[in-house]
Specification:
It contains 24 helices and 20 strands. The protein is α/β, with parallel strands linked by helices. The protein folds into 4 domains: 1-42 and 139-170, no CATH class; 44-135, Nucleic acid-binding proteins (OB fold (Dihydrolipoamide Acetyltransferase, E2P), Beta Barrel); 237-427, P-loop containing nucleotide triphosphate hydrolases (Rossmann fold, 3-Layer(aba) Sandwich), CATH 3.40.50; 437-593, 3-Layer(aba) Sandwich (Rossmann fold). The strands form 4 sheets. The chain has a 7-stranded parallel sheet, with helices on both faces. A 6-stranded parallel sheet has the order 15-20-19-16-18-17, with helices on both faces.
Length: 671
């Protein structure tokens, strides 16, 4: 057997099991080693049933009288049983887990871990995990818990990896370490823990490995970028001052600093590779306009890529107003553009200085005369291949300067790792006139008394409302209201108001039409899914309602909230919650703060990098163990990566490492 043998060669894995494993990324023997436990349960000190008290408990006993019944209301199955030891018995209950009936042998002892609480008038052990006592290492008392997939439960993954216990010796070292065999030892300790301390030590080393790969990929990308040649774009101070003097407002200090960093980058012969990040409404488009203006002064062409036609059209209108008085020709290219042939001919012969568009910019027949600057708005909406395709349109073998923009503030630790190949400019100030947004957590049962009067007040003033729902269609299993149903209910409550709904399954032309009418003030209340998260600027909208707020990530709610507060009137955001649970920390943080950079750091600590990174770029960061909030470990890895790169032979020596970082290079590159 070798590490890259198919999983079907393993004992206990047939074709159906192999299919399930493949869906969760386990296709080879090696993949099993890296399917790490999500958590551990400790059975060192179970309590007797006579000692049991409400709260999280671990008991050891046998189970009897187990059966399943259907609940009269809702689509719910209830499995109940009795757990007993020498001191007494307790009731145990599982919901929608009918397989539990077949799980237990009446003559065997099990550990049960769960919450002992009052439910429907009696105390029960609610939805506990269960482990056969004979399966637990008595020395450590720790039981690894794996993520279930389909029909495969945690115990199935534990059994399958147990069959590979003697194969861990095949695992090679990935990195130059002071201790040979550190990788195989760490992976073994994670799956077969001898103590909590051994698990912690192993996880710390594996986190080091993950960060090493990620940071090395970013460093290599930066090296590759520095080998490319770009057309230097001369900075003309007096002309830029003249342009700034024509504006009806003054730039913020953050905008001036970011613009200066961009001007300096574009004067170099190596292509700029800069990320402009700013909170919603911080003025990124104005900075992009300055960059475009400076480039066109040198006779260069600029392309701005936007994720949607309506956002491209908004950029077109704004930039045309700013730049055409200075004899700069601006064009819009989307799927709906008429006379594309003539427009593309003018782009090719250089008559168009700045072209703004969607994916239509990427087609093979869209050619440029002298493309020297590419600006990508909401860069996470475009994959690596799409960005590369636009970059390759620069003629004479030169690479264009690249300015990527994102409205999702990125924590410092994420900048140092995922975006280590980028220079970053930050807009952390809002332009004058921006209204603060008052955020309120509101239980749904208080909508009638507190929310509906606020909506009436807003629409009477001829301002507008966003109402965000989770679902497109009604679902009897979920306690969420769809956009269609919510819009219908609001029409009954506000019969004189113009109310429409919007969701992602609509045709693009229909979505664009609705957003155009909302932007034009022809819709009072827009009920929508999160498709409005990145949308047009509607200064007249001053109230945002987010239903089922607990089901969204902190960063996403902050983005949605940023749709309001863009005009001159006070703005409000209501986070609706259901049930009797206290609001989560992330909702309380949103109620307290509107600082996107502070919230991004909180989000990283609460939810890990997946949420933030997932909102930044296509592709999965997929860190299994490492925490990007561990700045000490990140610093240590950065030092070690620099040392590794000083020896060119390391690239050839550590072949598995170099193969492994390919995916990270594809994820982090913006070229």
């Amino acid at each position: 057997m070798n590490l890259f043998d198919d999983v079907e060669t393993l004992k206990g894995v047939g074709s159906k099991t192999a299919e399930i494993l493949s869906k969760c990324g386990i296709r080879t023997v090696r993949d099993f080693f890296y399917n790490l436990p999500r958590d551990y349960e400790s059975y060192e000190r179970p309590i007797s049933i006579a000692e049991i008290r409400p709260g999280k408990v671990v008991v050891k006993g046998k189970i009897s009288e187990i059966s399943t019944r259907r609940a009269r209301k809702r689509n719910l199955s209830i499995t109940e049983g009795v757990v007993s030891d020498k001191t007494g018995s307790i009731k145990v209950v599982w919901f929608n887990q009918s397989y539990r009936v077949r799980q237990f042998a009446p003559d065997k002892e099990y550990y049960f871990t769960g919450n002992y609480e009052l439910k429907n008038g009696r105390y029960s052990l609610i939805s506990p995990s269960a482990a056969l006592v004979s399966d637990i290492d008595t020395k450590s008392g720790l039981n690894p818990i794996y993520v279930a997939h389909g029909a495969l439960k945690s115990r199935d993954f534990k059994r399958l990896v147990g069959n590979l216990r003697d194969k861990f010796a095949l695992i090679p070292d990935l990195l130059p370490t002071v201790e040979p065999g550190k990788r195989k030892k760490s992976l073994f300790s994670v799956h077969f823990p001898s103590s909590p301390e051994s698990v912690e030590e192993a996880r710390r080393y594996l986190a080091y490995e993950e960060l090493f790969e990620l940071i090395l990929a970013a460093k290599l990308n930066k090296r590759e970028n520095e080998k490319l040649k770009a057309e230097p774009i001369t900075f003309r101070l007096e002309t830029v001052k003249e342009f700034l003097g024509s504006l009806p407002f003054e730039l913020t200090g953050a905008q001036k600093k970011a613009a200066w960093e961009i001007f300096q980058d574009m004067e170099k012969e190596t292509p700029m590779n800069r990320l402009l990040q700013g909170d919603v409404g911080s003025g990124k488009t104005m900075v992009a306009a300055l960059a475009a203006y400076s480039a066109t002064l040198s006779g260069c062409q600029v392309a701005l890529l936007a994720p949607t036609a309506i956002l491209a059209a908004q950029h077109y209108e704004n930039l045309k107003t700013l730049l055409e008085p200075f004899k700069i020709t601006v064009a819009l290219l989307t799927g709906a553009t008429r006379d594309k042939v003539n427009l593309k001919e003018n782009i090719k012969n250089g008559k168009i200085n700045l072209v703004i568009g969607t994916h239509a910019l990427l087609t093979d027949d869209t050619e440029f005369s002298r493309l020297s600057l590419v600006i990508i708005d909401e860069q996470h909406r475009f994959g690596v291949e799409q960005r590369q395709k636009l970059a390759l349109k620069s003629p004479q073998g030169l690479a264009p300067h690249l300015l990527a923009m994102t409205a999702t503030p990125i924590p410092r630790s994420l900048q140092l790792t995922v975006f280590g190949d980028l220079d970053v400019s930050i807009l952390n100030q809002l332009p004058r006139g921006r209204q603060p947004i008052k955020t309120t957590i509101l239980p749904e049962i208080e909508m009638k008394e507190r929310l509906y009067p606020k909506i009436s007040e807003v629409v009477i003033r001829r301002n507008q409302v966003y109402w965000v729902c989770k679902a497109i269609d009604d679902n009897s299993r979920a306690e969420t209201v769809s956009v269609k149903t919510r819009a219908a209910k609001l029409k009954q409550i506000f019969p004189k108001q113009r109310i429409e709904f919007l969701h992602g399954r609509m045709k693009q032309a229909e979505k664009d039409d609705i957003m155009k009418r909302f932007s034009g003030g022809k819709i009072d209340i827009l009920v929508s899914t999160t498709v409005v998260e990145v949308g047009v600027d509607v200064p007249n909208a001053c109230l945002m309602v987010i239903e089922n707020a607990e089901s969204y990530g902190l960063a996403q709610i902050h983005q949605l909230r940023g749709r309001v507060g863009r005009g001159s009137v006070a703005s409000f955001c209501y986070l609706l919650t259901s049930g009797e649970m206290q609001p989560s920390r992330r909702l309380r943080e949103l109620e307290k703060s509107s600082d996107g950079f502070h919230l991004a750091e909180v989000d990283l600590k609460l939810r890990g990098p997946g949420e933030i990174y997932g909102a930044l770029q296509h592709g999965a960061l997929d860190l299994r163990i490492a925490s990007l909030s561990d700045t000490k470990l990140i610093h240590r890895v950065q030092v070690d990566v620099e040392r590794f790169l000083q020896d060119p032979n390391n690239m050839l020596k550590y072949t598995e490492l170099m193969q492994g970082i390919t995916k990270y290079q594809q994820l982090t590159t913006l070229n």
